[in-house]
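Dear colleague,

As promised, here are the two records you asked about, laid out in our usual form so they can be pasted straight into your sheet.

NAME FIELD: protein one
SEQUENCE, THEN STRUCTURE:
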Amino acid sequence: MRAQVTLFVIIAILIVSAAGTIYYLSSQTSKSLLAREQAIINSVPEKFRPAEENFISCLKGKGIEALTLLGSQAGYVTLPDEDPASDYMPFSNMADVLGMKVPYWWYVSGNNIQKNQVPSLASMQSQLEAYLDKNAAECESSLRLLEGFEVNTAQPKTVVKINDDYVNFDVKYPLTLTFENLTVSVQEQIFTVPMQLGKMYQIAKQAMDKENENYFVEERTIDAIFLYPEIPSTSLNFECSPKIWTKTAVKESLQNVLVNNLPFIKLKGTNYAKSEKYFEIDVEKPAKTLVQMCFL
């Protein structure tokens, strides 16, 4: 049962909505990070600052694009190679969620081998870096549209650090701007996206470990099956007439049961509307600022 039921539900989409959520820090850390960004802008002569602000804003937009993509694909900017299904195990290593491929963090391969493909923090950082390096040239192109400016750049090299409450981007992207016979050079662009990606990642892993330890989702699924008479179970029935089910109808009923029940599962301590304790998974309590996380 575990190998089959878990396959439906442990997609680790706990991180999906997480990486798509930006919030605003009010701590001293936030002020320090914003000061670093502003210091770069202030380091150039005043007439160059609008162009520099435009450049950093564009790069930050690319960073948010990368984070959103990583979040929507369970920690992957670039999807892993597809592990094909088989007649015995008719699922690949990725789920189709509204037309989008979302890698499972744990799955059973077509040849019946249990596999784990949880992305590491290092791999997530590396993928974000590669995305910025590949797409930063679009920001250079936007600068060339500014009237009167001449722009020269070199190949970018990005370093990303995922922290609990924010993601820091250090883009070593030498930029030379010329305007009205004046030239200024900026060697790197530093910006921060206030996103609880590191914290979300740790909580998602804890939730998965909890599930693998206690089979929480499987237990809730089995309970639900027993509550719905349209799904055959081992319950007693004293009617004389035989019960008949079709495979197609049972499959459809089970899918409906999962769709109607699993979304109620929540992580205890996160920010969500009131939930029945029956559906709460008790993992390590996160900070109160953690945004809502749930199973899809």
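NAME FIELD: protein two
SEQUENCE, THEN STRUCTURE:
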Amino acid sequence: MKIFELGQGTPLVFIPGLQGRWEYTRVTVDALAKCFRVITFSLADEPDAQAPFDAESGFDNYSEHVRNVLDSVGIDRAIVCGVSFGGLVALRFAAHFPHRVLALVLASTPGPGWHLKQRHDMYARWPLVFGPMFVVEAPLRARDELRAALPDASDRRAFSRYILRTLWSAPISLSRMAIRARRIALFDGQADAARVVAPTLVITGEPGLDHVVDVDGSSRYAQLIAGAKYVVLPRTGHQGTLTRPDLFAEEVRGFAQTIGQLGSTSRASAPTTGWVA
């Protein structure tokens, strides 16, 4: 398996979103690594992950991958944080491996019953045909959010350059993204949420700025998971972990501190940087 670590302190597993590649969340990893030992990776069905994957097992593949990653780096328990599609992976892991989870963080995670819009379902059925349309639409969907999160035009241009550089260095697969998107409708988020016993932080953007998932649906996890805390990242939508990574990291740090999981656990303080096998 291919695993990337950065930082020191309490271990935090960071699971990327629908694009599947951890590199798209590098700014978030960097921000979290100021307070945590961050362990991240590409999703199991990405060739870059170098992990086993059985399509018939659905989301269980991803949660098994998280377990294998923890075993590989010698960590018994960690904070598990997932963004968007990665939030569903984190939720499944917390539901099925509760003894491995110090705390759960769900960021802009599709809520129970989420499904693709009719147009996007068509894109997902024929990604090689309609994928370019999805790519063209993406900046338009994010336009309002980027203006709110990054009022300075130079900051927006820098963010766009960051995304373009990542696309060049870590190409995405529209076909794999489409398969993942269609898997979401098969995910029983309500059932998994009922099994979570770890302290949980649910984070969303503002309802009027997230044009990818329904914020009302995402925030439902705060009601479905006993004792969960809910936070809205101001001036963000679906991309808040990328556009305001330091604010996101501060919310996670404050939550970990509140529940007594900042700077704790055995082997937590081992400094780590870069790739590990």
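A couple of things worth noting about protein two: The radius of gyration is 17 Å. The first helix runs from residue 26 to 32.

Best,
R.
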